[in-house]
Specification:
It is a single chain. The chain is mainly α. The chain has one domain: Methane Monooxygenase Hydroxylase, Chain G, domain 1 (Up-down Bundle). It is built from 13 helices and no strands. Helix 3 packs antiparallel against helix 4 and helix 4 packs parallel to helix 11. Bound molecules: protoporphyrin IX containing FE. Protoporphyrin IX containing FE (HEM) binds next to helix 3, helix 11 and helix 12.
């Protein structure tokens, strides 16, 4: 890494990236548990990628709200590349055996990925999310921040506004307007030869990529949990794998899936 003025103060790799700070942040709780470092690093890496994912999804949403559909697609393409990387990281964690995990698991409780605020923000911003945020994060700043995030337009709502701005949707539909949305989406899937429709078609397919990648992550994470903890309850206090099984069917954009059987 180089930078700064010739001969003057130069930014070096460690000071620019705060490497010393970063490498001080891995603190296992159980001495002699050889797999705890893996567990910590993988979770921390997830949170870093979540941060970038939120950044890219937020920019995509904002470009759509500003009517610049063509600027949203590169952001979404990057978001999908990150989604795929997140899936791959589970393979690294799956090299841990159940005994390896048990060696340091108990002191972690009740910490759980269940409490990952950034994961919830990704769900909310994408257009989904659990119905009771307050229940997950009672009171406090987190609940307020997530509620504000939820109050703002989601990626899907921004997509609909952008469609309306391009006269591809008669008006911004409320909950009763789902039939209008379905018709508009179907029309774009059936015909997307002109540049604006082609852009929306590409945008829809990127949203499907994002939705599919998250669904594959949920499934793979559930399988990984099954091989690590069997039928034990989760450290977060849920039923464990039985709970995760229920989340696997979640989709952010049901209409983009349903439309396929109507083409
Ligand atoms: C040994 C590895 C892991 C096991 C056994 C495991 C297990 C579980 C279990 C049982 C739950 C249900 C909630 C609970 O009661 O705790 C859960 C939720 C969750 N975990 Fe993991 N997990 C592992 C690794 C990870 C990693 C690396 C991430 C990445 C951030 C992660 C993210 C999440 C998220 C986001 C949830 C909430 C899912 C939802 O509510 O839809 N987990 N995990």
């Amino acid at each position: 890494m180089t930078g700064g003025a010739e001969g003057g103060d130069r930014t070096d790799y460690s000071s620019y990236l705060l490497i010393d700070d970063l490498l001080r942040l891995q603190r296992p709780l159980t001495e002699g548990a050889d797999d705890e470092m893996l567990f910590i690093v993988v979770h921390q890496a997830y949170e870093l990628w979540f941060k970038l994912l939120l950044h890219e999804l937020g920019l995509a949403r904002d470009h759509l709200l500003q009517g610049a559909c063509w600027l949203a697609t590169p952001r979404l393409r990057r978001a999908v590349a990150i989604d795929e990387l997140l899936l791959g990281q589970l393979k690294v964690l799956e090299t841990m055996s159940p005994e390896g995990f048990l060696a340091f698991r108990d002191p972690l409780a009740p910490a759980s990925g269940f409490q990952s605020e950034q994961f919830r923000e990704i769900e909310l911003l994408s257009g989904g999310g659990p119905p009771t945020i307050g229940g997950l994060h009672p009171g406090g700043e987190t609940a307020d921040r997530l509620a504000r995030q939820r109050g703002g337009p989601t990626l899907w709502e921004a997509t609909l506004r952008s469609l309306a701005a391009h006269d591809l949707l008669a008006r911004e539909p409320g909950p009763a307007g789902q039939a209008l949305v379905r018709r508009a989406v179907g029309a774009i899937y059936r015909s997307h030869d002109d540049p604006v429709r082609a852009h929306f078609h590409e945008l829809f397919e990127l949203l499907v990529d994002h939705d599919e990648a998250l669904a594959r992550w949920r499934h793979h994470h559930m399988m990984m949990a099954a091989r690590e903890i069997g039928r034990r309850p989760g450290t977060g206090g849920s039923l464990g794998v039985a709970y995760l099984e229920q989340t696997v069917a979640q989709r952010f954009y049901p209409v983009l899936w349903e439309i396929r059987s109507e083409l």
